[in-house]
Specification:
globular, alpha/beta, 2 domains, 17% strand, seven-stranded mixed beta sheet, Rossmann fold, three-stranded antiparallel beta sheet, Dehydroquinate synthase-like, alpha domain, binds glycine
């Protein structure tokens, strides 16, 4: 399947095709050099596939795995590497990895010489269904997530679902959390499908395609997150707070799962909780409530005049953009605090 994201001169295709990682030589004919950025946790075979498509034009940069390396020092290392290899605007950068690699490589691409072409080859389900498209780039700074970054669209996103065979099941579940987020806010039919699925390869293929279509539609309407795109933060404000201050070392998608339960109500809360349990994701967590609230209150993107921007869901397939007092948020947080 191929779909196009229409953003004027920044339009691009998203290709979803088995084995597409081994079949991308055509992308590179117009470039002099190709920088492949990956991390130490991504199986080498994937960056090797891209490098063999780019042949002797390619150079490899391997960053250490982990969110803690999503920082400005890594950006400077990539830019230094590009400078040492005489990269110019006639060259391009490819990210091969998950959300961290994509955000970092795209950020470096957007600032080096005021922008060199960027290609994304996501290798996690989470990056396939959400972060690899839409053009958000960024790093964490001074303990604030994604506070430095740019909007910079890729020239193409290439999704090869066969790479998921090497992804651990916990990471698959995290990707499903982000897909369920889009279903809960926009697409009741996808939600019902996910709520009954056994998440085999065929179903995951359908979930990827539908999520990519939803993300495309949202980004086309609101590239710079002024309104509708804010809905993609459903579960993320509380999720980030738990991720930063929680006690259990939960992954990002797991924290978002708990955040979605907190920010939903009524029938939707029941359905979301049931679907998350079916996937095998947590619906509550153990955390220091004061610490989580403090983290959220310091989140400059979520807070204005002491009120917190929030996305809530009362009916599956529909979202509300609202603002909450810290007291209301605290109440919602209490509802997902594990009681032992
Ligand atoms: N991952 C949320 C967004 O791209 O807006």
């Amino acid at each position: 399947m191929k779909t196009r994201v229409y953003l004027g001169e920044n339009s691009y295709d998203i290709l979803i095709e088995n084995d597409s990682l081994s079949d991308c030589s055509d992308l590179f004919t117009k470039y002099g050099r190709v920088l492949v950025v990956t991390d130490s946790g991504v199986p080498e075979e994937y960056s090797k596939k891209i490098m063999s498509c780019a042949k002797d034009k390619s150079v490899l940069f391997v960053m250490p795995e982990g969110e803690e390396n999503k920082n400005i020092e890594t950006i400077m290392s990539i830019c230094k590497f590009m400078l040492e290899h005489n990269f110019s605007r006639k060259d391009c950068v490819c990210a091969v990895g998950g959300g961290v690699v994509g955000d970092v490589a795209a950020f470096a691409s957007s600032i080096y010489m005021r922008g060199v072409d960027f290609y994304n080859f996501p290798t996690t389900l989470l990056s396939m269904v959400d972060s690899s498209s839409g053009g958000k780039t960024g790093v964490d700074f001074e303990n604030v997530k994604n506070i430095l970054g740019t909007f910079y669209q890729p020239k193409r996103v290439t999704i090869d679902p066969t790479v998921l065979k090497t992804l651990d099941k916990r990471q698959i579940r995290c990707g499903l959390a982000e897909a369920l987020k889009m279903a809960a806010t926009f697409d009741e039919a996808l939600f019902d499908f996910m709520a009954k699925s056994d998440y085999d390869d065929n179903d995951i293929g359908i979930i990827i395609e539908r999520s990519v279509e939803l993300k495309k539609t949202i980004v086309e309407q609101d590239e710079k997150e002024q309104n509708i795109r804010k809905s993609l933060n459903f579960g993320h404000t509380i999720g980030h707070g738990i991720e930063e201050s929680g006690k259990e070392g939960l992954y990002h998608g797991e924290c978002v799962a708990v955040g979605m339960v907190a920010m939903s109500s009524g029938d939707a809360k029941e359905k979301i909780t049931k679907a998350l349990k079916r996937i095998g994701l947590p619906t509550d967590a153990s955390f220091d409530q004061r610490k989580v609230l403090k983290t959220i209150a310091h989140d400059k993107k979520a807070t204005a005049n002491g009120r917190i921007s929030a996305v809530t869901v009362e009916t599956i397939g529909k979202y509300n953009l609202t603002e909450m007092s810290i007291e209301e948020l605290s109440e919602r947080l209490s509802s997902v605090k594990r009681s032992r």
